[in-house]
Amino acid sequence: MIARITGDRAHAEDLAQDTFVKAFRNLAAFDTTRRFSSWLFRIAHNTAIDAMRRSNRPLESIDANREMAAGGAHEPAAAPAPDPVERRELGRALELALTGLRPDQRAAIVLRYEHGLSFGDIATVLGVPEATARSHVHRARKELAQRLTASGWAPPR
What CATH number is given for 2-150 in this structure? Predict the structure, then answer.
């Protein structure tokens, strides 16, 4: 998630270390009635967003030039592309579309579909009400569909 927010794997590794240090230092503040993963994602999200604000760097995709491996996380489950070339092209189009999303929507969609978090957990990580987390995911999906359709990747009918 940090790498997706920052767009820089090396910087993301440093921020991940910072995240674990912050988590360790604040372990006493962890509420054991809640999920540890949500708490840790929240710290990671805040660390990445703070770093981006400090650097004033634009958000960008780290995967835009990477070829998708077979079975990659960004493939649509219902209608996979029939050949590897189309699969790579669809992956690139999706990455480009993800890059254009607002940071809160992008984080919500990544947490939902790449990390499998529930809307409640996404809300905890992003520090918003659950209804807002649902709205971020809904709007991100709608925006992704529009962007992919505009780039020639219409959903099957």
Answer: 1.10.10.10
